[in-house]
Amino acid sequence: MKTDIHPENYRLVIFHDNSSGERFLVGSTIETSETDKWEDGSEYPLARVDVTSASHPFYTGQEKVMDTAGRVERFKARAEKAATRKKKA
Fold first, then answer.
1. Per-residue confidence (pLDDT) for residue 64, from 0 to 100
2. Ramachandran region, residue 28 (left: φ > 0; alpha: ψ -120 to 50; beta: rest)
3. Which helix (H) or strand (E) holds 87?
4. CA–CA distance, 57 with 63 (Å, rounded to integer)
5. Which helix (H) or strand (E) segment is 88 a member of?
6. With contact defined as beta carbons under 8 Å apart, do 23 and 17 qualify?
7. pTM, entire model
8. Most CB contacts within 10 A, which of 42, 50, 52, 85?
């Protein structure tokens, strides 16, 4: 087996799902500056993610629209503005 192929900074990290609020304590090498307390009272690095198995429709079986950036509203506003321009012309 090869030696020295695994990362040195492997540690436990809390992954927080921004969509569902679920939290997972998983071993990872992700770099993060935030920390938070876990259920055992210990403090771990915190990584915030938008989608995990707790919120993805493939795993939950529920369809859920996630529009965190307001893209749909901006599109509808542009479409409405374009439609009013055509009516005036």
1. 60
2. beta
3. helix 71-88
4. 5
5. helix 71-88
6. yes
7. 0.61
8. 52
